[in-house]
Design a protein that fits this description.
Blueprint lengths: L4 H11 L4 E8 L3 H14 L3 E5 L8 H9 L3 E6 L1 H4 L4 H16 L7 E3 L27 H4 L6 E4 L17 H9 L7 H9 L6 E6 L8 H25 L1
Parallel strand pairs: 1-2, 1-6, 2-3, 3-4, 5-6
Length: 242
């Protein structure tokens, strides 16, 4: 079975000592699942960054503090422009307020956009009018990563080739080049196989959504069913934009 904690551990073990790999996690829901992946990473000597949403189902202060105490970085998973329906000034205030709330718990110097696939607004556009560096933010992965050098891989869509239906969690400028090189994977075992054979890129950012990774059979089945529906909706949205 894929998307279990057991499989995630196998992936990390395969990646041990393989090139330069950044582990990123978007905590959209179920923060306790993130605590479990953070423990596995701590056990294996990995340091990751966890981006938390300012939503009741993604924001759990105990989980945030616990993950930070393990040595992982905490970031803000913002969606302010979507939440504020495109109002730039209101969105900036919303962003600053939630950033301040998160900083009351742990140090925060990194932010990352939440895709909000059903929204017409891309929250990254907020930075066309404001400068997050003035707020003490050092990095926004989508904006500060040189993807001509770093391969981007995400489990969006509960698969590793979800860029086909993803609205925003993808790097369209380079995806065709990566596909031509054969850097397309569906199952986690496909990634592990590529690593063992030396075909996986040596520089990569691997993004997961820990809510999807569980050894609980009921949660696993529910997540699979919900994601199937979400993928159908996202495919329709992507088709309309083409």
């Amino acid at each position: 079975m894929d998307f279990t904690l057991k499989k995630y551990r196998e992936l990390l073990l395969a990646l041990q000592g393989y090139g330069e790999v950044t582990l990123r996690h978007d905590v959209d829901k179920k923060p306790q699942n993130s605590v479990k992946t953070a423990r596995i990473e701590q056990e294996l000597g990995w340091k990751a960054v966890y981006y938390f949403r300012a939503k009741p189902y993604g924001w759990e202060e105990e989980a945030i503090r616990e993950i930070a105490a393990m040595g992982h970085e905490i970031g803000y998973h913002y969606e302010s422009l979507s939440t504020c329906d495109g109002d730039m000034e209101l969105a900036y205030r919303d962003f600053c307020d939630h950033l301040e709330s998160l900083r009351k718990l742990v140090p925060v110097t990194s932010i990352c956009m939440h895709g909000s696939p059903t929204s017409q607004w891309d929250s990254r556009d907020l930075w066309k009018h404001y400068d997050y560096h003035q707020l003490g933010i050092k990095t926004e992965p989508y904006l500060d990563t040189d993807f001509s050098e770093v391969f981007y891989l995400t489990d969006t869509g509960r698969c590793w080739d979800g860029f086909k239906v993803s609205v925003r969690d993808k790097i369209p400028e380079y995806q065709e080049q990566w596909s031509q090189k054969g850097w397309v994977y569906h199952h986690t075992d496909d990634i592990i196989k590529a690593i063992k054979e030396g075909h996986f890129p040596r520089k990569a950012m691997v993004t997961t959504h820990p809510q999807r990774w569980t050894d609980n059979p009921w949660q696993w089945c529910c997540e699979m069913g919900v994601q199937w529906v979400k993928n159908m909706v996202k495919a329709i949205i992507v088709k309309k934009k083409l």
